Amino acid sequence: MAKKTTPAPKNQAAAEARARAQAQMRAQERKTTVMIWLGVAVAVVLFATLVAFIINQSQAPELGDADGAVPAGSTESGGLPVGTSGVVGVDVPEDALEVSIYADYLCPACAQFEMVVADDLDELREAGTIQLSYHPVSILDRASPTQYSTRSANAAATVADGSPEHFVEYSNLLFANQPAEQGDHWSDAELAQFAIEVGVPADVADAIEDGLFRRWVVGATEQASVDGLQGTPSVMVDGEMLNPDQVPYFQAGALKAYLEERAATQ
Amino acid sequence: MSELSRFARLQPWLSLVVRLSMAGILVASSVPKLMDLPQSVVAVRAYRLLPEAIVPLVGHLLPVVELILAAVLLAGVFTRAAGVVWLLMMAGFLTGVIWAWSQGLQIDCGCFGGGGDLAEGETTNYSTYVAERLGFVALGAYLVAFPRTRFSLDAWMAGTDRNEVNSTESA
To answer: Cis before residue B56, ω within 30 degrees of 0?
Structure first.
């Protein structure tokens, strides 16, 4: 009998409490479901990124490895050493002061720099005063929808590999005909045409569009960054990046004077 | 009292705007990095704060983590926790920028892609970066304090999206 006389409000309160408890349980279930799915999704994305990263890293060629897709004569630091006779990898003076030039074919300051120092560097190199290496790096791909930085560096590497006696002239021509940083950039066919202009054999020029050394360029750029490259153009002398505040190499003759002094006191 | 109740009514909408802004900021900072991952690695390296062994990994993972956090904020799921993660990330970035500043490094923060060291003639605007980051910290702190937002998975999970939107206890 007691049950029947239970006041209605109490029943109602119990029902509400039950409803609340059920709602809370449903909320908890939803929360658990979402948590599981979110956890799985995040784990999958992170795992996929890791796998992609590892595959990506393992595809980079070993720099300086003669068997890999690296230009003949290139160094472990990703440089193209040019000897006294102007040929990549030939007649490189072993004991001379090491000078490395880091430049991107799309970087306006690099073209300007090249204009100022090219003749001086050629002179010092021919005299055997310095051991000169060119490092064509690609750091401006983000400014180019067609990845001109990487493609032009690949073109230079292709010439260095297949026709090493034309590398210096080709490299100079690329700087002399540098496209605007923002805008249309030369196609691989046009880069091949420049190669033909400086006397590179047709079969080597045709290989430019195969992009055989693109991965090498990426690897060499990465190595340059590890070695302390902070921007282009940069000059490394005997393992140390030159500070443009101390050696104002954009001024005509400044770099030559500095290098001659360093070489003399070596 | 009316001030308070007005805030209670406005807060989920305000939090929604903050949450979506944070998602937008993360997408804007992540996508350019994903488009140029080597540059992202260079940007991380330029701070000269992390050992070289983990620099490439961090450079690759950072934009992915940013994108995941953006998705979480967009969905409005575990909003308060997402806000805490955001604050931790901002603390990391702030540390990096202040470190670079104190070391006198001339670098681009790489906050929205790009980054690395600066070319000739560019200057580093550290104070702007720090001010910007502090603004982002304020956004995150607000969301951690008031994580209840409209149109969120959180509200759906709690079962509060259909009714009692105005109730202040469901946060």
So the answer is: no
For residue B23, tell me if it sits in a domain: yes
The 10s digit of each residue's pLDDT in A52-66 is 888 877 776 677 665
- Which residues are within 8 A (CB) of A130 and not within 5 positions of it... i.e. 6 or more apart? A93, A96, A97, A98, A99, A121, A124, A259, A263
Say if B1 falls within a structural domain. Answer: no
pLDDT at B5: 85
CA-wise closest residue to A102 among A65, A61, A166, A149? A149
* Tokens 């032009």, residue located: A152
> Considering only CA atoms, which of A159, A263, A143 is closest in space to residue A203?
A159
Cβ B64–A45 below 8 Å, yes or no?
yes
B117: helix, strand or coil = strand
What's the order of all strands across the beta sheet hosting A234-237? A80-82, A130-136, A97-103, A234-237, A240-241
Residue pLDDT, tens place only, B73-126: 999 999 999 999 999 999 999 998 888 888 877 666 666 655 666 555 556 678
Phi and psi, residue A138, nearest 5°? -120, 95
A80-265 CATH: 3.40.30.10
* C-alpha distance from A237 to closest chain B C-alpha (Å): 19
Structure tokens at A69: 């897709």
- Looking at residue B166, its pLDDT comes to 41
Residue A215: closest C-alpha in chain B? B38
pTM (two decimals): 0.73
Closest CA to A234 of A109, A131, A129: A109
* Boundaries of domain holding B92: 10-158
Which of A51, A68, A52 has the alpha carbon at shortest distance from A60?
A68
Task: For residue B33, tell me if it sits in a domain.
Answer: yes
Q: Does residue B168 fall inside a structural domain?
A: no
> B126-145 and B2-35 are packed helices; what angle lies between their axes, rounded to 10 degrees?
130
* DSSP three-state, residue A63: coil
Instruction: With beta carbons under 8 A apart, name residues in chain B contacting A218.
Output: 38
Q: Do A142 and B116 touch (CB under 8 A)?
A: no
Give me the number of domains chain B comprises.
Answer: 1
- Distance, in Å, from the CA atom of A211 to the CA atom of A171, rounded to the nearest integer, reads 17
Highest mean pLDDT out of A23-32, A220-229, B60-69: B60-69
Q: Whole-number mean pLDDT of chain B? A: 84
Which ipTM did the prediction report? 0.79
B124 contact residues in A (CB cutoff 8 A): none
Q: A94 pLDDT exceeds 80?
A: yes
Taking the C-alpha atoms of residue A134 and residue A148, their distance in angstroms, rounded to an integer, is 18
